[in-house]
Amino acid sequence: MLYQSYDMKDPHQAAVPADNVNNGLYGQDILSVKQFNRQLLTYIMGVADEMRALVKRFGKANLLDGKILANLFYEPSTRTSSSFQAAMLRLGGRVIAINEVRYSSVTKGESLPDTVRTLESYCDVIVIRHPEVGSAAIAAKAARKPVINAGDGPGEHPTQALLDLYTIADELKRLDGLKVAMLGDLKYGRTVHSLTRLLSLYDTEFYFVSPEILRMPEEILQELRQSGHTYHEFEDVHDVISKVDVLYVTRVQRERFDDPDEYERVKDYYVIDPEVMSKAKQDMILMHPLPRVYEIDMRVDDDPRAAYFRQMENGMYIRMALLAAVLGKA
Ligand code: NCD
Q1: Residue 151 near ligand 1, beta carbon < 6 Å
Q2: pLDDT tens-place string over residues 136-171
Q3: I need a labelling partner for 262 at 20 to 30 A (CA). Which of 151, 175, 253, 330 fits?
C-alpha cells in the first residue's frame, strides 16, 4: 500500500506527507471509474481506512483548512450530497451547497459551463450531480478546478462505485474470486454501471438479474466480454441467490421512465425478504446504494449480512479520501 500510517495522537499532523501531489489524483477530475486502476484503488481504499480511523478517534482534522467545495446538485440526493459535505467539513474545509438549483441562476437559463465557471472562481473543487449523461464531463471541460461526478443521469456514479468496492473489500476481505449479483434496474441504474466496470479490474463472475426491459446495457456487456469476464443474465433472483457472495440490489429508477405504466409494471418486480435471504450463503453480503423503495423488506435490516447501512457510512470515508487526494493532501 502506498499510504503510510501517521501518528494518531495528533489529527493535525494527519496524513503524510502534508502535501502529496503525486497520488495520481491531484488536480484531476473524477468523471468515470475508467480512470482507476488496481493500484490507485488500493491507494484510495487505504486512505479511506485512515479517514475512518481518524473520524472514529478524533472526529475531524484540518487537512483541508481554507479549501472550499461547491456541491452542485441538479437532482435529488440525501447520502451523496450530505456525505460529500460532511467529508469536507470533517477535514476542516467549507462547503457552498447549491441543492436548490431552482433558486440559482440556472432557472434564469444560465448554461452549465457558465454556472461552473462562476463556482470555480469561488472554490477549489466542484461536485456535480446532473440528470444528463456526459454533464459532468461538460462541466469539467469548462472548469480549471477539479470536477467530481456525483451521478450523470443513467451514466456513471464513480464515487458510489468506489464506496461500494471499499465496502466489499471491508466486509469480505477480498476482491478477487467473488461471484457478484446485481439486481433490479440495470438499464438506468448508474451505480451498477460504474460498479461493474470497477469490479472488472478484479477476478469477478457477474450475475445480472433484471426484468427483460431493464437489462444491463449492451455496451457494458461488451466491455466484459472484451476483458474476458464471465457473466450470466437471469430474471429470477432464486436462480442466483444461493450462489453469490454479493447481492447488490437497486431501485427501479422511476425518474428515467418515459412511460409511467411501464414503471408500474416493473416497480415491485423484486422484493428481498427473509424468505429470499434464507436461501443465501451465510457469509454473503446484501448491498444497496439507497434509497430503497420496495426492493428490500425492512425485516432484513437486522440480518448481519445486510451491509447497506455500513456501505452508506463508508461513503463519507471514501469521499474524504477523494477530496484529500484531489486537493493534494492525501
Ligand atoms: C443512487 C443514485 O443516485 O444513483 N443513490 C445514491 O447516490 N446513493 C441510487 C438511486 O438513486 O437509486
Answers
A1: yes
A2: 999 999 999 999 999 999 999 999 999 999 999 999
A3: 151
Contact of 141 with 319, CB cutoff 8 Å = no
Residue 6 above 50 pLDDT?
no
| Domain carrying residue 169 | 2-8+158-312
Judge whether 187 lies within some domain: yes
Ligand 1 pocket, residue 190 CB under 6 Å: yes
For residue 157, give the ligand 1 atom closest to its CA.
4
Catalytic residues: 79-80, 108, 129, 157
In angstroms, the first-to-last Cα distance of the chain is 13
As a whole number, the mean pLDDT across the chain is 92
Are 2 and 46 a contacting pair, CB within 8 Å?
Answer: yes
Q: Using CB atoms within 10 Å of the CB of residue 243, give its burial: 0 to 12 exposed, 13 to 18 middle, 19+ buried.
A: middle
pLDDT of residue 28 exceeding 60, the answer is yes
- Ligand 1 touching residue 150 (CB < 6 A): no
Total count of domains within the chain:
2
> Which ligand 1 atom lies nearest to the CA of residue 290?
8
Ligand 1 centroid to 291 CA: how many Å?
Answer: 7
